[in-house]
Design brief:
The complex is a heterodimer of chains A (about 160) and B (about 80). Chain A is α+β, with helices and mostly antiparallel strands. Chain A contains four helices and eight strands. With about 80 residues, chain B is α+β, with helices and mostly antiparallel strands. Chain B contains three helices and five strands. Chain B has a five-stranded mixed sheet with strand order 2-1-5-3-4. In chain B, strand 3 and strand 4 form a beta hairpin. Chain B is globular. The chains are: A alpha+beta (about 160), B alpha+beta (about 80).
Chain lengths: ~160, ~80
């Protein structure tokens, strides 16, 4: 049986509730749906972020996310996966990314969603540029994100 | 071959893509980075710290020792910050 997989890169916002509902619509074998929403923060420490601009590598971004979805499908018994990642200019409070996983039980759905997010952070070709009162600058990759992705390759 | 650049690598070089014809001695991704870095100040700035530069050949991540023979499109970019 083919597992329904949706991967979308888009400038526009998405409807989180609709995407979650879609993974269990019309079927009774799904017992768990996990979703992760990544939202643009306004920043802390008085250095308020006014907007983010997300640059991506068209073609590779879809391919890379697809490879990680395939790996998730091989590792966990999933009934559906949806990954939506926005690009372009995004302001605080807006959605950036959505991962939804469906399975019979929660463990697989939780693990697969976390796995996909950890890899999206470090392997999907997207780059954030932050705008603040001080100007605009590219966001540095965080070491803790690399460490989070690396733990999935340990035995 | 076609070379594409993203984020601050693109900004420092001042272009998003170009066609390059490196000499035969340029075998690997690391060789190509070193050759590109010698093409002028903007390139030298973009590739001043080769260990932070990530590369992809035909839409897949590759390590620096990967051969470039047969590549249609090679991309250079900083560590990714999506999600």
């Amino acid at each position: 049986m083919t597992v329904p997989v949706t991967i979308r890169l888009q400038q526009d916002d998405f409807d989180t509730a609709r995407e979650i509902a879609a993974l269990s619509a019309g079927r009774t074998d799904v017992g768990a749906v996990v979703s992760f929403s990544g939202v643009c923060r306004g920043g802390a420490d008085g250095d308020a972020i006014t907007a983010l601009t997300l640059e991506h590598y068209p073609g590779m971004a879809e391919a890379e996310i697809g490879r990680h979805v395939e790996e998730a499908l091989a590792r966990w018994p999933l009934f559906g996966v949806t990954v939506i990642h926005r690009y372009g200019r995004i302001t605080p409070g807006e959605n950036i990314v959505l991962v939804v996983t469906a399975s019979a039980h929660r463990q697989a759905a939780f693990a697969a969603a976390e796995f996909l997010m950890d890899y999206l952070k470090t392997r999907a070709p997207f780059w954030k540029r932050e705008e603040s009162a001080a100007g605009a600058q590219w966001v540095d990759a965080a070491a803790h994100d690399a460490a989070a992705a690396a733990r999935w390759t340990k035995s | 071959m076609k070379v594409v650049y993203f984020a601050w690598v693109r900004e420092r070089i001042g272009k998003a893509e170009e066609i390059v014809e490196p000499p035969a001695a340029v075998h690997t991704v690391a060789d190509l980075i070193a050759w590109l870095a010698g093409r002028g100040e903007a390139y030298a700035h973009a590739f001043e710290t080769p260990r932070v530069i990530r590369a992809a050949i035909d839409h897949a991540h590759v390590p620096p020792d990967t051969a470039i023979a047969g590549a249609r499109e090679i991309a250079f970019f900083p560590p990714m910050t999506g999600g």
